[in-house]
Write a structure and sequence with these properties.
The chain is α/β, with parallel strands linked by helices and about 375 residues long. It is built from 14 helices and 17 strands. Helix 2 packs across helix 4.
Length: about 375
Amino acid sequence: MSEPICIQAAHAFKLNIPLKTEFAVAYASYDRVETIVASVGADNGVVGWGSASPDEEVTGETVESTFKALTEKIGPALMEAQSAPPARLLRVVFNAAPEAPAARAAADIAIHDLWSKSIGCSLSSLLGAYRTTIPTSVTIGICDESETLERARAFIDRGFSILKIKCGKNADEDIARVKKLRETIGEKVKLRLDANQGYSLDDARKAAAALAPENIEFIEQPTAAKDREALVALATESPIPVMADESALDAKDALELFQAGVPLVNIKLMKCGGVREALRICDIALTLGKKVMIGCMDELPLSMAAAAAVALAHPAVAYADLDGHIDLEQRVAAGGIIIDTGFVSVTERPGLGVEIRKQYLKE
């Protein structure tokens, strides 16, 4: 499983993809997504594919800086590495661009795709699947009460039983909206909240106290990412479990937050740099008796299939939020990740199991 691989080609393609529905979070609104597809080709003729969806608000990366890191640093470093085992190639990626996690994630995913294809198994099998399916939430952006209810009904009709509600702009409006939603949909559907750093500590306390009776699974990153003291303070007193997202970029961050008393961390491949680092965070959580969620940005099926494989691979993963591809108007990548009645699984095809339609990359 660790035969040397010789990378002979590396490519990157920038894409600008419309969203089916405009999406709002506490710090921005989106109607399209800029993303990058990356490929690595080996001397055995096998090609591995990955993708990057950088978020400047989270990691400081833009699509231009990510593309530059892939084409000017990571790609050349991989081709200069000559023949090396996959784990060494992953280290080459990290050393080439330590400051660019989304770029590293694209290369990491492509190497894992190439690795598992080369030995004829799915990435899920390569990672040692712990489960075959996991329920995922589906996200409703910040919108008014009537639109929230409309979108919730539509997702429930499609079989989803976990809704993640974006909030963080106005605590009082969020409280009223979530209370109305719970009253409307009943208790069978699980609710999660994600404030994307939007609350002050006082507003976060107010929202947690008011919404605790509504049976909320957790509230994600309610306070500013750089204000760890506020996040830790809230985690120790909130009646709703607190999950770190933007505060936890990598394994070091996750370890520090777990040790400080934050019980949950959202792992995103785009934040931490790919599959290898995501599994490190999972191992830390398991060692400390903590739990993680595998989450996502708005992403192509390439990185979503990789995230799903991680979610299925590790016992520390208690939650999944893997809906980042379902609202993209794109035809470049298909397959790999499967969502059926709210449950995520992956194909058993070699690698990620994603079909790349190269004609759309050329366009």
